[in-house]
Amino acid sequence: MDINRKQHEVLRRASLFLEENQREPKMAELLLQHYLGVSRAKFFTMMREDVPEDVLSDFQDALSKHAETGVPLEHITGFAPFYGRHFLVNEHTLIPRPETEELIEMVLQSLPAEIEAEPITIADIGTGSGIIAITLALELPQAVVYATDISAKALKVAGKNAERLGADITFLQGDYLEPLIEQQIKPDIVIANPPYISLDEKTLLSDTVKNFDPAEALFADENGLGAYKAISNRLRSTLNPDGGSVFFEIGDRQGKDVQRLLKSALPEIDVSVIRDMNGKERIVHGTYGMLSSDQ
């Protein structure tokens, strides 16, 4: 029996290999668990077992590719976790970040009890893989949920995710709010995690991000504020005129600028900047009318 195929030895060598190539050693554990097809708990009970030859071959190929190119785990496995569920992702969709789960929590917490019992219309702008729209549809079964994206390829992934997870979503192709305006859909809540990184900051990103996440989901003009401006300027033509709410996920130094854009487009809106669990600016929340915080 070849001791070099023992799981603990395979893992040790792989972790050292990644460290020598300036990659995160933890990736070796995640990749090996994926190719073994076992839970994390089961994985740690198997340390003295042999790794099957076919698994070892696939694992080593993926390990080398990650070390060389930085290809993310999610593109190797084809899935990404979000809010307790697993979503299909690929090169046409942004890999979900943990911070976006806080955006979901903020939307859910913002709804008064009397609103939660009634139908409410939500629109997710630039849906990508559909994580926001699908999660809200599943957490709020009474909601009517729309999701827009300009990318037909992203919408295809989002549609597959909705079907897999049993979420009832209406997907619309088009630029930001335009599909809603064209169909005269007036949501109570607009939520968006748009591109917000300035092109000047591209060199600061890791290759795992800038070479694999779609550029149109990362970068925006006007110092990263272009998408917020485009959406804000069309909100009056989109939101329920009796009152509505908007949620933006933002970069950690964009709070005042996005707040200014919203107030410029809708002077009557009440806007707040919310920090995430790490104390960074992460969400801009605007409300007016029936969903206003002072009602």
Automatic annotation (TrEMBL):
It is an enzyme of class 2 (transferase). SUPFAM superfamilies: S-adenosyl-L-methionine-dependent methyltransferases. Keywords: Methyltransferase, S-adenosyl-L-methionine, Transferase. Residues 107-198 form the Methyltransferase small domain. PROSITE patterns: N6_MTASE (PS00092). It holds the Pfam family PrmC_N. GO terms for biological process: methylation. It comes from the Bacteria. It catalyses: L-glutaminyl-[peptide chain release factor] + S-adenosyl-L-methionine = N(5)-methyl-L-glutaminyl-[peptide chain release factor] + S-adenosyl-L-homocysteine + H(+). Its EC number is 2.1.1.297. S-adenosyl-L-methionine binds at G126, T127, G128, S129, G130, D149, N193. Residues 9-78 form the Release factor glutamine methyltransferase N-terminal domain. Substrate binds at N193, P194, P195, Y196. CDD domains: AdoMet_MTases. InterPro entries: DNA_methylase_N6_adenine_CS, HemK-like, N5-glutamine_MTase, PrmC_N, RF_methyltr_PrmC, SAM-dependent_MTases_sf, Small_mtfrase_dom. One of its GO terms (molecular function) is nucleic acid binding. Methylates the class 1 translation termination release factors RF1/PrfA and RF2/PrfB on the glutamine residue of the universally conserved GGQ motif. NCBIfam families: hemK_fam, RF_mod_PrmC. Belongs to the protein N5-glutamine methyltransferase family. PrmC subfamily. This is Release factor glutamine methyltransferase. It comes from Lentibacillus persicus. The gene is prmC.
